[in-house]
Amino acid sequence: MPQPSILVRPRIYIGADISIGPGKIDLLRRIDETRSIAAAARAMGIPYKRAWLLLDALNQAFGRPLIQTASGGKGGGGATLTPLGLQLVICYAALEERLNADSTAELEALRGLATSP
């Protein structure tokens, strides 16, 4: 599905400790797709350490893990979203979809401002 040229990508603050935005959500989505923190970081063009720090911040904020990792070895390692991580991605996607659908007039007005002389 092609991305529209104007899109709302919200940043949500829950209390003083939880901040969820497009970067963290995109990282979780990529981990879900690739089953790897390293592959997700590469796909996003960010260092592995940055990805790990974002995930650690989410885990600390929610008080429980959003991803589950397995060490390498004969079967290989990997990472998967926990039910909490998956639910976070689903809720964020629903919010993002609703905000974009309900903001059509405002988004078109903004687009007009960007393209007017």
TrEMBL record:
<dbReference type="InterPro" id="IPR051815">
    <property type="entry name" value="Molybdate_resp_trans_reg"/>
</dbReference>
<protein>
    <submittedName>
        <fullName>LysR family transcriptional regulator</fullName>
    </submittedName>
</protein>
<feature type="domain" description="HTH lysR-type">
    <location>
        <begin position="26"/>
        <end position="85"/>
    </location>
</feature>
<dbReference type="Pfam" id="PF00126">
    <property type="entry name" value="HTH_1"/>
</dbReference>
<dbReference type="InterPro" id="IPR000847">
    <property type="entry name" value="LysR_HTH_N"/>
</dbReference>
<dbReference type="InterPro" id="IPR036388">
    <property type="entry name" value="WH-like_DNA-bd_sf"/>
</dbReference>
<dbReference type="InterPro" id="IPR036390">
    <property type="entry name" value="WH_DNA-bd_sf"/>
</dbReference>
